[in-house]
Amino acid sequence: MSAWIKRGSYNHEYHHKQSQYVVKEYSSSEAMEERYEHKTKTRIQEVVRTKLDDKYVREEPMIRGPKFLVRLRSHMVFENTPVKIFCTVEGFPMPVRVKQHAVTTNSTISFMLSLFFSPASMLPKIHYTKIHITFLEMFGPVFATEGESATLSATMTLEPNLANLQPEAQWYRDDTRLFDSKWVKIETGRGFSKLTLPNLYKDDEGLYTLRMVTKGGTAEHSAFVSVADGPPPVPAAPGAPMDIKIHDANRDYVIVSWKPPNTTTEGPILGYFVDKCEVGTENWTQCNDHPIKICKYPVSGLFEGHSFYFRVRAVNSHGISKPSRMSDPITAMDPTEFERLHAKRLGGRLDIVSYHDEVEGKPPGVPSGINASETDRTYVVLSWKAPAYTSSAPMWYYIEKCMADSGAWQRVNTQVPIRSPRYAVFDLAEGKQYKFRVLSANIYGTSAPSEPTGPIQTQELKGVPSAPGQVIATRETDTSVLIQWAPPKEPNNLIGYYIDQCVQGSKNWTSANHKPHKNTKFVVSGLTTGETYMFRVQAINELGLSDESQESAPLTVKAALTTPSAPYNIALLYCDGHSMILNWKKPLRSGGAKIKEYYVDKRRRGTTMWREVHIPPITERVENLTEGAVYQFQVYGANLAGLGPASKHSEDLTCDAWTMPEPGPAYDLTFCEVRDNSLVVEWQKPVYTGSEPITGYHVEYAKKGTANWITANEKAASHRFLKVTGLEVGTTYVFRVRAVNAAGVGMASMASDPVTAKAVAGSQEVSCVVDEKSGDIVLSFESCQINEGSKFIWKKDYKEITDFSKGVVIKSEGIHSKLIFKNPDKEDFGTYSVSVTNTEGVSSSYTISNEELVKMLALSYDIRHPVIPLKSELAYKILERGRMRFWLQAEEISSNVTYKFFANNKELSGADMAHDVATGIIEFIMDHFTEENEGTYTCQITDGGGKAQSSLVLIGNGKRDQGLLLSYDQPFKCGSNPVGPHKTCSIRLHSTKKEQYPLDYTEIIPDVKPDLGSGVCKLPIKEFSLKTAGIYKATISDDRGKDMSQINISGKVFDDAINKLSQLAGASAAELVINCTATGIQLQCHMKYYTSEMNITWYHGETKLSHSDKIVIGGTPAMATMEVVEPVEKDKGKYSIVITDPENSHKRTLDLSGDGQYFQAEAYAEKNRGKVVGGLPDVVTIMEKKTLSLTCTVCGDPKPQVSWLKNGSEYVVSLDQGKFASLTIKGVSMEDSGRYTMIVQNKYGGESVDIVVSVYRHGEKIPEAKPTLTPKTIIPPKLPIEIPQPKTQPAPSAAPSTPSPAAPKAALGRGVKSPTPSRRK
């Protein structure tokens, strides 16, 4: 029995509780009991071992050693007979191992069995808690300079986070563990670890790794720290050496080694100086008088027992470098000194330390085992085994050397006694062979020499390594490149490599590392994304650097291609019972290349085998499914790098056909213009629309992690985007969309990815201006982020702009992008948005309203057609001797002004012209003015982009015209004096499409002839709008000369004209009427004149209507229209039109609260009534006795009836074949001239079209055909209008429509036929 139990020290309750403590601590991770708080891992292990010992104590009485109950017995058997040997054993615990030995002698085989059991089988297996470590903030690459400081820190989460089971933080540099020191400071706490380098040297460069070590595993993160040379003491001096190491420290010498600096931009190294400083002082002394060329130097003459620091400086032709980091302190002493000391206890607490006792008066024994532990060019380090020595008298050694081929031994150390069995023999010849032997000595004598060594040859100076082999650069990340190279063929004691980098096209090579790298792989960090680099490598040994390797092939820095991550969130969009349309979200990481293909696998619920749906890649539809079966799907993404991982499988999806009347789910929710309190959601239309067309969408959102969905828009949005406002800044939301039709609200889309209501730092907004030079309307955007592959995507009403035929231009450069309207017009209003790809969601938008667009169009026109204001028009003054002075005065001119004078449209040259910038006066002097010089004089001025023109008419005693006047209720007119019967008037319109002088006008011949009696010349403008704005000039002339006047209809003049037209339109506006079209209901308001530039607004109730796919606003010159496309129940109500002018507003209202079925019937009738599609001319001119054939195309459902009417009384019936109707008259006569009307009609109504036929005789002049715009006459439908219902069984044929009034028989000699129709011209 255990001694503890015998002494009565075993406490069952106590040890039982401690066992529970151990189980809780290592198995369930519960809080430990309050009686014991063990803070360290070591203490916990002690507790475990203690409690396991207790377990042995409890089970000791039960332990029994292994024992054979039934032993093996001897057997005699026949040859080649199988034998089974049995035995019975016992023991507690059960023996676990059996050793079997067989010994064969002639015909006898002997067996021996051995039984063992292991007490370890009684130990419970300890399951350590698995601590999951997730890094939150990780340190990245550091690029610093010598003398600076650097801090690497990382934060992490621990799961579970136990106070007494914190992971151990271990920091490494190039796989060498770091500890707190003068050069490194480490701080670690719960959830963080930080390493600080307070004073950087190139020794600190390397790959730093933080390892969080737990019993269950290790988590680590690494980053490179680059330390460049600091400013040199003198320009072009080399960088400091590094990595100072101390070897073979002894009583009076040490060997110092170091690594040379990189000399990419400096001259070659000529040598090095080694400095030493005794600990406790600051006096650095130089150890060598002349620079040494190799990176190793023995420093002798040290004082025994003193400690020293060492440092090294490099020298080139420009000067001496800064010193390296000083070495760790080293003490000059015999390393075996303490091996010969021992302690004696004198009694009590006093000890005495002395050398071993000896028998006095004997010399020491002979040393043995002499060998060379290190050889160099000029020295050899010898080691040997000291003889057995117990004397208190000091012992020392003598070393002798001789050339290998001679026997002349020479003592090496005649001045300095050697105390330790290790010594460096210096001043040897390079490449020679030597033998060495050692003698031991004390005050009593010298031993015999040891056995000499074999020939030991010193090294020869082989030089620097050969150049490394081929250098290969491959992509790593978007800021780093992996460099690999072949080692040099002649390494010659290789120390490491230096890597240089250079931007392609330049010769500016810079160092990628500042400390020799040992491996043939290196990751160059801190590169510019998208830039192209070349690399080269140099090998280095203690003598210096090799030649450069060949340059690598140019490589553009970008992330290496990898396979995409897995798609996610597989959703069902539609099922028809035999196939499904699936949708999924794209992988979060594309792997650096575009995802071109997706692959889908399927399996039945309850099975484990996945099957490919199709071998070719698919995008969404999965076919050949079994109706009613339940499936699961998984999706793979593929790019150039290969196939990515599979997505998480979908939920169980049943293959049942969708028949619900409501729409299916929308999909592909995306976000843009994310701000602190708002964002814009976009989505795709559902694949399944339900039984009725989709009329709108509702957007819902909820805070992440909650199910409290809030509807963002109570009124369904008719478009597939919505700006959601009222969000909380910094809060994360998820969104979903529901489509709406007449049957109700449809299925919700899959919830979007979470999005946080927080603007991207530095976000800018789109600005809209009119370019002051070109007059273009420009939308500008500056991105706060730009990355490789980023593109600017411009959209109008959130549809990407792809049509550039109307003068829309996109210009992007760097972080700036512009959307330019070269030819803006009134249709360019709307919301324009821009997004930048490959960023953190940088986007913005700008809405151009109709009112703002009108103002910008007017400003654009003014900029493109600038006019220099004149203080006075062109005038004249008669001077002495028949000279004439012509002059005008501008408001302001510059010194760059140019001008020309014209007389009767011929440029004057050689005249005395001058101008005064201060007064703005421009003049020219005509020397002799006679009657031959009478006519029109014009001065054209150009100053920068501005132009001006003024004219003067000098014709006898005649007066100038009264000028051009603009009348808003009358045609445009020119007032003048009557000047004879041959006076003519012409009006020209200035071209607004090119920058040119007003002489290049487009001539317009007025329909109204000038009234020479009253002196009024009128120009009617039938459709007055922004397109007809410009400069109008009227020229009047007779046999005595001509005169001219002009008016600029733009700017304020144009606005005044529109206001006056608005007054006329408002006063003449009729009540609203309804017209059913093929697509919906159209409200019409007839008025004297209508143009889109008028201030006219439509309302539905109190809601202002704007132009959209649902509401179409427009008009003709005689009426304003508003059409409701596909009206539904909610479109009922009062509609009104408001015509506003500066003085009054005119309102007309119509109530559409009646039966919506009626309007649907009207629309159906309009769609199916008889119509003339085309083919008939307005006017036909034909020679007598020719054949007249009038053919056209008609349509309608049911098939319409066609009849012809001449001059309102005579009926002529045509033959209708299919969709073509024609009228043929052979041998036409003069009596056949007149107006013909074709009537096309079915039960839903129809229309009539007029054609004028003019017959002329042979030899007569062909009469001029003047087509007149005669509107079609609409024939209303028969009431009530019946809309056919879906047929469940064949219905009887419809009764024929009531024909038009019976037409008389065709005239004799006339035939009717239906030839192939001709295209209507």
TrEMBL record:
Residues 1267-1297 have a biased composition (Low complexity). Pfam families: fn3 (PF00041), I-set (PF07679). Residues 124-226, 748-849, 1066-1153, 1184-1254 form the Ig-like domain. Residues 1267-1321 are annotated as: Disordered. Keywords: Disulfide bond, Immunoglobulin domain, Repeat. Residues 240-335, 366-461, 467-560, 566-657, 665-762 form the Fibronectin type-III domain. Signal peptide: none annotated. InterPro entries: FN3_dom, FN3_sf, Ig-like_dom, Ig-like_dom_sf, Ig-like_fold, Ig_I-set, Ig_sub, Ig_sub2. It comes from the Eukaryota. PANTHER family: MYOMESIN-2, TITIN. This is Myomesin 2a. It comes from Astatotilapia calliptera. The lineage of its organism: Eukaryota, Metazoa, Chordata, Craniata, Vertebrata.
